[in-house]
Amino acid sequence: MTAKIIDGKAFAATVRGEVAEHVARLKEEHGLTPGLAVVLVGEDPASQVYVRSKGKMTAEVGMNSYEHRLDADTAEAELLALIKRLNADRDVHGILVQLPLPKHLDEDLVINAIDPEKDVDGFHISNVGLLGTGQKSMVPCTPLGCLMMLRDHHGSLSGMDAVVIGRSNIVGKPMAQLLLGDSCTVTIAHSRTKDLPQVVRRADIVVAAVGRPEMVPGDWIKPGATVIDVGINRIGAPEKGTNEDGSVKTRLVGDCHFESCAAVAGAITPVPGGVGPMTIACLLANTVTACCRANGLPEPEGLTA
Ligand code: NAD
């Protein structure tokens, strides 16, 4: 079998198009422009790239983008004061604090200071609780993107066996909650799981969110299963030659060994071009949803869990 490639890049473009339509309608019919505030503390290069691209895409769909860049040694009180101001700002519907934060800042304290209704990353403890109890919440962007791709591919997920590899608060746990919400039978596997290959072989749906390059080989995959590869790993690619400084060039790979998994799976997301683009699209979708909720308007269909 050769798997259907689930094109996350194209799907994300469709989602962004739907978001842009909702934004235009909110402006025209209600005089509202959704606004997303992104807070970056310090100069982590990867975070800077993410924040830049979030700002660009926010503007592209017609929303207001507010960037707050703070020095790496910013005091916790100063960051909390900024969040308080953003919570009170009626033009700001979504607030995202880019993680990881510098070590002297308490991430849990900072995230839980965000108004849960503006918590477009879905990491606030209230949103975690609401999702866990099947209530309306803000859903973390990466798992939401995975769910959208799965629903698009399968229609109903009811009764399917799903294995999520990884139990992080950002991906693994909320992913498992969402699959449970769609009536899958869910197993969460992690670093202490016994006989991981056997566990994965049971799955109709495999979501890999580990952060270990090409860890899942094709012979762990049940024929015809759907593989969602969340991992983003950079590995050396000597076949691409060397950089000017003599170092070996690199390439991105997922947590699944693409070629061998694609030979067995029914469908698979590539890396890059799979889950990654969906994450930002879902951040934009969450911001529109937050804007609608804040103004008592009906939520956009198909853009929430
Ligand atoms: P994390 O480090 O917080 O969690 C990794 C999880 O993997 C842990 O729960 C751990 O128990 C499990 N694990 C580690 N070794 C294992 C093993 N040998 N067998 C089974 N399980 C094992 O990571 P995270 O934040 O959840 O991210 C996971 C991956 O997803 C990373 O590569 C990250 O870059 C990527 N990611 C991608 C996006 C995206 O937009 N595509 C978003 C978030 C994270």
From TrEMBL:
Binding locations of NADP(+): 166-168, 232
GO molecular function: methenyltetrahydrofolate cyclohydrolase activity; methylenetetrahydrofolate dehydrogenase (NADP+) activity
Key words of the record: Amino-acid biosynthesis, Histidine biosynthesis, Hydrolase, Methionine biosynthesis, Multifunctional enzyme, NADP, One-carbon metabolism, Oxidoreductase, Purine biosynthesis
CDD domains (UniProt xref): NAD_bind_m-THF_DH_Cyclohyd
One cellular component term from this protein's GO annotations in UniProt: cytosol
Domain spans labelled Tetrahydrofolate dehydrogenase/cyclohydrolase catalytic: 6-121
One Pfam family linked to the record: THF_DHG_CYH
Annotated coiled-coil segments of the chain: none
Domain Tetrahydrofolate dehydrogenase/cyclohydrolase NAD(P)-binding: 140-293
Annotated pathway: One-carbon metabolism; tetrahydrofolate interconversion
Domain of life: Bacteria
The protein's Enzyme Commission number: 1.5.1.5, 3.5.4.9
Record family assignment: Belongs to the tetrahydrofolate dehydrogenase/cyclohydrolase family.
Function: Catalyzes the oxidation of 5,10-methylenetetrahydrofolate to 5,10-methenyltetrahydrofolate and then the hydrolysis of 5,10-methenyltetrahydrofolate to 10-formyltetrahydrofolate.
Subunit text: Homodimer.
PANTHER family with a match to the protein in the record: C-1-TETRAHYDROFOLATE SYNTHASE, CYTOPLASMIC, C-1-TETRAHYDROFOLATE SYNTHASE, CYTOPLASMIC-RELATED
Name of the protein in question: Bifunctional protein FolD
Organism: Sagittula salina
Gene name in the database record: folD
